[in-house]
Amino acid sequence: MILPELDVRTPASLSDALQMMAEFPGARPLAGGTDLLVLLKQRLLPVGPLIDLGRLAELETLGTVGENLVIGAGVTLCEVGENTLVRNLFPALSEAAAAAAGPNLRNMGTIGGNLCLFPRCLYYNQSRFWRSTLGNCLKTGGESCFAVPGSLRCYACFSADCPPPLIALGAKVSVARWCDGQVGSRLIPLEDLYRNDGVRPLTLNPDELVTAIYLPVREGLRSAYGKYRRRASIDFPLAGVAVSFVLEENRFKDIVVVLGAMASAPIMAREAMTLLEGREYGKEVLEAAAEQVARGTHPVRNQPGSPEHRRHMTRILFRRMVAKLVTGD
Ligand SMILES: Cc1cc2nc3c(=O)[nH]c(=O)nc-3n(C[C@H](O)[C@H](O)[C@H](O)COP(=O)(O)OP(=O)(O)OC[C@H]3O[C@@H](n4cnc5c(N)ncnc54)[C@H](O)[C@@H]3O)c2cc1C
């Protein structure tokens, strides 16, 4: 797998980068490159100009601003995982960043790239030679999905670790573009970045960049992230469960449960959230909620392991995370 010849542009500032994104049709942002370069090697993307975000100081913020913790899109997974503020205030995010990929990839890979990771599929993330034996699936311009034969929509799996905990923690992201000769930006809830569509997974316009994440600091918020994968040293999640809540007199308040690797976007386990909200912690209620978590998922056969097993793992991870946050066990 050899890289094609690349046209890499190196902007000196965020506004330069946004101007380049607007100027060159087909331009893509290049952050750590740990996913993008693999896709280019596999000839899964057209080769256009790459706008290197690696040297942009504006994307490197990590600290509290007012009532938020602000994390720049260019901060590495390693820094997010090891940062004391993140670890103390938002353990679910710290756990997810530390469990993504392997150490060398976490040193290069950024949180912005993690939010914008392409959904994955056993039939898609393969070399051109491997794929040539089957022809094109929906995601590579064919007429139907190989994972769900006959389906006219792509079910590629959302495999990034950080977005589920970030959504559970109430994150917003700032999105910027070059507009009327200046930088324009908007702030959106992170869940609005995703469409649950394997072919067009993000709501970003082609000339937009994610610049930062805003996490509201809240006293008493407990959170955890549980991940199931084949090799704990490096693999993508086959199931991911993020939970956050406040516990008041042993009752759940503002509980949010978000699942990763079950669909083409992170999904909220709304039935389980409704069932637990305001209820007192106990084994029976936890068991009933875990059942709802599993029942609300619909993974398909596009990742290693059976969909039934992955769904069952959401039940187990959810139970473990909640019990750990309540009892410390
Ligand atoms: C062997 C292996 C195992 C991995 N395991 C995991 C895992 O377990 N969990 C996991 O979550 N990930 C995993 N990854 C994927 C990847 O390493 C991480 O998701 C990483 O955070 C991607 O960040 P990056 O900076 O390298 O992104 P890049 O590869 O540079 O970019 C990824 C995508 O995001 C876009 N992008 C980047 N920055 C921005 C921005 N600021 N605004 C808009 N778009 C942007 C790029 O154009 C590209 O489409 C793995 C990768 C490999 C090779």
Walk me through the structure.
The structure is a single chain. This protein has helices at 14-23, 36-41, 77-82, 84-89, 91-99, 103-108, 111-115, 128-132, 163-168, 270-276, 283-295, 307-327; strands at residues 8-9, 28-30, 50-52, 62-65, 68-72, 172-179, 182-189, 209-216, 221-228, 239-248, 251-260, 267-268. The chain is 30% helix and 22% strand. The longest helix has 21 residues, at 307-327. Strand 2 (28-30), helix 2 and strand 3 form a beta-alpha-beta unit. The chain has a domain at 59-116 and 157-327: CO dehydrogenase flavoprotein, C-terminal domain (Enolase-like, domain 1). The chain is globular and about 60 Å long. Helix 10 packs antiparallel against helix 11 and helix 11 (283-295) runs antiparallel to helix 12. The chain has a five-stranded antiparallel β-sheet. It is of the alpha+beta class and 329 residues long. It is built from twelve helices and twelve strands. The model has no long low-confidence stretch (mean pLDDT 96). Bound molecules: flavin-adenine dinucleotide.
Structure characteristics:
single chain, 329 residues, alpha+beta, Enolase-like, domain 1, five-stranded antiparallel beta sheet, four-stranded antiparallel beta sheet, 12 helices, 30% helix, binds flavin-adenine dinucleotide
In short:
This protein is an alpha+beta fold and 329 residues long. It has 12 helices and 12 strands. The protein has a domain at 59-116 and 157-327: CO dehydrogenase flavoprotein, C-terminal domain (Enolase-like, domain 1, 2-Layer Sandwich), CATH 3.30.390.
